[in-house]
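Anyone able to model this chain together with fe (ii) ion?
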Amino acid sequence: MEELVNDKLLEDRNATGSDVASPSSSTSTESSEVKRKLPRKSLDVSGPVKPYHPRLKNFWYPIAFSTDLKDDTMIPIDCFEEPWVLFRGKDGNPGCVQNTCAHRACPLHLGSVNEGRIQCPYHGWEYTTDGKCEKMPSTRLLNVKIRSLPCLEQEGMIWIWPGDDPPTPTLPSLQPPSGFVIHAEIVMELPIEHGLLLDNLLDLAHAPFTHTSTFAKGWTVPSLVKFLTPASGLQGYWDPYPIDMEFRPPCMVLSTIGISKPGKLEGQSTKECTTHLHQLHVCIPSSRNKTRLLYRMSLDFAPVLKHIPFMHYLWRHFAEQVLNEDLRLVIGQQERMINGANVWNLPVAYDKLGVRYRLWRNAVDQGDKQLPFSKPM
Ligand code: FES
Ligand SMILES: [Fe+2]
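re: yes, here you go
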């Protein structure tokens, strides 16, 4: 096993040609000291979000939960600034086609699904899951096909491949570890760029300041927060919290939290805790200022909770409360970023995982052949 280290942030920063930052401070003398030691910034995430690099599209993206897509329903989604719609074909398999009718650009999701074909609500043209138009009522059938994306279903999620490269044959697994039962699957549309949401989710140090009305109520502020990780990894654990966390490219965060009962932290490491909560966050880049968030929560205790009526609403309410505590801050960051502020102006030691995500994302955006921290699939 690789040695766990906690100074790699500094090494990473050196590796990218930057000097090491001192801990942040509030006095003007110390601030200029920090500035003096930072002649160049290692990370610059400022200004309006740039158009997405085509390479970021060459991944499988889990885009919806299977249970939300019935035989006769449609799910409209935006992904990389394009409108798509999911529906099930006659064989029950999901498909993803452009959400724009070939005839006169009507949104298809306002229509219906008939025998595995999506029917446009305007003049009734019908398309299969691979985009072929099979019905044009009241006129001669033309040979028309709209765009479709590779679309698969695995482990309770529907995945699409938005890129131009051929899709990889296998999908990654996002299942919780064995012994966990899924209790909630929640989808939210958020008015922030997905990278900013990932930055937020990969940061735990903000919890005792931001989440004072929800899960971090009553937490003391530790004298030191660290994220311990293998030297080359995108996963590790938080000290002093019993929380394991991983960034899974291109846009997923998995975390396991040791608890005694929901909302209560206990012990020093997840292994010392007898009960755990597992979370999956998928941050889909809908557009440059919108994210589709898929959240899945699992527990390795109290399976009976799953059968309590309306429990799902409670989980959703709690998830929204937590997210709202973050959102007002991240929306503010986004506004400042668009106006030129660098949201990664001065990373410190506990920002390690977020910094690594940004190094990975920068490499994608620059078209680097070898992506940092990437595990072979
Ligand atoms: S716009 Fe869709 S059938 Fe006319
Ligand atoms: Fe948060």
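The CA atoms of residues 207 and 352 lie 16 Å apart.
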